[in-house]
Structures are given as C-alpha cells and as structure tokens.
Specification:
Layout (H helix, E strand, L loop, with lengths): L1 H8 L6 H20 L9 H10 L6 H20 L2 E5 L20 E6 L2 E3 L1 H11 L5 H15 L5
Antiparallel strand pairs: 1-2, 2-3
Helix pairs in contact: 2-4, 4-5
Length: about 160
C-alpha cells in the first residue's frame, strides 16, 4: 500500500476530481492485489470496502483515509451524480457557508450531492479510529435513504 502512497503523492493533479479518481482507482488496485477483493464502484461493493477497512491497522491514517475514502466517495458520486469540491469540515471553522480557503480554514475533499455535503475521507478516518460504530455500510444505507428522497438518480 505504501508504494501506492509514493506514486500518488508524486503526481500533480489538475483538479480535485482528478485526484479523487486517481486515489479511488488505486484503492481498487490495492483491494485486488493485497486483499483479493473486487471493488467495482457498485453500492454492493461498500460491504467489501467495510471488510477491508475493518482489518486495517491505524497506520498512516491520512493516506488510508484518502485512499479508501476516495473510493467510498466515488461510489456515492457515481450513484447520485455528485461533484467534488474542497470545503471546510463542519465545526472546524466559523463561516456563513462560504469557504475562503485561507490558512485558518483548512479544506478537505467534499462531495456535493443535490445540495447535501458529504465528507467520505473523514468518514473513513472515523471508521479507522473509532471502530465498528462508524460502519461504512450502515452510513451508506443512511445516505441512500436520505438522498433517495431529495436527489434524482442517474440514468
């Protein structure tokens, strides 16, 4: 997995979308090569992702959160036609919803789906650090239920 880290961190991405997609594609590769698990961007693959993350040691949390969180976010984005952007995580700043991106307001990859904002990398971080109470499949099902009433699904 750490070969992946060196390879990805050496790249310059033209956009947040390109970065997330590269990390997500790398997660698919790592899952197949190191965990013998197929991740195919389907909603059903979230259960397989949960099993992978459940077995991970809390080592290099930043990279693991980006790797697995990018994949998790891409499953959601593809399902609900979301867009990636950079935004401050709630509670980390005081603003009126506008992100200045200044040094006092750190921003992280954020998925916007029909006006709802999700932070998949933070969810994975919480799963890695807080354990099974932060189950990714359970969270996905909650998001699915909420978005099914507010967002239109892709064709």
């Amino acid at each position: 997995m750490f070969d992946s880290k060196a390879r990805l961190e050496a790249l310059n991405f033209p956009s947040i979308d390109a970065m997330i997609r590269a990390y997500a594609d790398e997660a698919v590769l790592v899952a197949r090569q190191q965990h013998r698990t197929l991740l195919d961007y389907s909603p059903a693959s979230v259960a397989a992702l949960e099993r992978i993350v459940d077995g991970q040691a809390a080592v290099d949390l930043d990279f693991q959160s980006r790797l697995w969180g990018s994949y998790f976010g891409e499953v959601l984005r593809r399902r609900w036609n979301g867009i990636w952007l950079l935004a401050a995580y709630p509670g980390n700043h005081e603003s009126s919803g506008q992100v200045s991106g200044g040094p006092s307001e750190p921003v992280i990859p954020t998925l916007d789906v029909a006006g709802s904002r999700l932070w998949p990398t933070m969810k994975v971080y919480r799963r890695l650090t807080l354990g099974a109470a932060e189950n990714l499949s359970t969270f996905y099902n909650l998001v699915e239920k909420r978005l099914s009433t507010t967002a239109s699904r892709p064709n």
